[in-house]
Amino acid sequence: MGFSLGFLVGILGVLILFHAAYSTVQYRGLLKIMEEEFSGPPITVVAELLLGLVLSLWAGLTVPGTFLSIHPHSEENRIVALPANLDFMVFNHRGKVFPVEMDLKLKH
């Protein structure tokens, strides 16, 4: 079970967010008992929320890996070979009713 550092930081960030939510609910319950009005969460809960957000965001950006190129002519996106089983490639479909070349021009 080799978890990466980013994954563990993400779990910690989510746990901090859950703790901040629980603390807010507990604080509101305390205010109801004391019959005071809720004006906002305490500063410690806000600090927890910000810390949990930063940790979760950092983990979400680092855990999945490197970003790949989305450019269609990139060398990383080249198809090396067709699949070995060509039985599932269907070329007889309803798209054949459309003309091959459509010369549509936008009107200005």
Question: Can I get a quick summary?
Answer:
The chain has 108 residues and is mostly helical. It is built from two helices and no strands.
What Rg do the Cα atoms give?
A: 27 Å
Q: Tell me the number of helical segments per DSSP (H or I, 4 or more residues long).
A: 2
The chain-level mean pLDDT equals 80
* Percent range of helical residues: 40-55%
Largest sheet data = none
Give start-end ranges of low-pLDDT stretches. none
Number of strands: 0
What is the H/E order?
HH
Helix/strand structural class: mainly alpha
Q: How far from one another are the termini?
A: 61 Å
Shape: elongated
Report strand %. Answer: under 5%
Q: What does this protein structure show overall?
A:
- This protein is an all-alpha fold.
- The protein has helices at residues 5-33, 43-62.
- The longest helix has 29 residues, at 5-33.
- Helices cover 45% and strands 0% of the residues.
- The mean pLDDT is 80.
- The radius of gyration is 27 Å and the shape is elongated.
- Helix 1 packs antiparallel against helix 2 (43-62).
How are the elements arranged and paired?
Blueprint: H1 5-33, H2 43-62
